[in-house]
Amino acid sequence: MDCRNWIVEVVESARAGLQPDAQLQKHLRECPRCTDRWDDEQRLSAELRTMRDAASSRSEVRREAIMREFELAHGTVMRRSVKLAFSIAAILLLTLALGQVWRNHRPADTIAQNPGSSAPGNEFEASVLTNVPEDDDFIAVPYAPPLAPGEFIRVVRTQLRPNALARMGIYVDASLSEMPADVVIGEDGFPRAVRVLGDIQF
User: Any idea where the domains of the chain sit in the sequence?
Assistant: First the structure.
């Protein structure tokens, strides 16, 4: 076998990382040219393995870095989603609270639209009535819906102008600027009945 055939075996053994067999070892001891080729191929194979290992380790490091970036980005998105959910919940709660406050203060706002306003301590306790009490000189407000069974009402003492009373069918002295009156307010905040108090002083 000539050196050309031995070199093929040298290259294959070196690249596979195998030790030469007995015949190749005998030839390497006798042929300096094939020995030099064996040494060159081993160095080349070692360098290729080193480069491959380095590339593999860099790839692993890069993969870990990408995974860390993904986790950070995913965590940021999750945190933003949680913040957005909490913000929406807070807005809803605030809206509900403001709606409740507005609803509770609606009767006061309705009375405030009249020229006079109720003074502190002039509002009677809320009570449950099935209809407007006509035996206490209360006059139903025209076109006002009837009270629902079990509906809570409030009786508010205030000052009303004679023209407002006249629109409700109550005839009073037009020369007076204001008249003291009790106003029955339903749960919806609208007046249901009025009672003129005469000479009651506020």
Answer: 1-105, 114-196
Which distant-in-sequence residues (6+ apart) come within 8 Å of 113 by Cβ? none
Tens digit of each residue's pLDDT (9 = 90 or more) over 89-111: 888 888 888 877 776 665 444 44
The pLDDT tens digits of the residues spanning 144-191 come to 888 888 888 888 888 888 877 777 767 777 777 788 888 888 888 888
Q: Other C-beta atoms within 10 Å of 9: how many?
A: 17
**DSSP-assigned letters across all residues of the chain:** --HHHHHHHHHHHHHHTPPP-HHHHHHHHH-HHHHHHHHHHHHHHHHHHHHHHHHHHHHHHHHHHHHHHHHHHHHHHHHHHHHHHHHHHHHHHHHHHHHHHHHHHHHHHHHHTSSS-PPTT-BPPPEE-SS--GGGT-EEPTTPPPPPTT-EEEEEEEEE-HHHHHHTT----TT-S-EEEEEEE-TTS-EEEEEE-SS---
pTM > 0.70: no
180-202 b/e (C-beta count within 10 Å ≥ 16 → b): bbbbbbbeebebbbbbbeeeeee
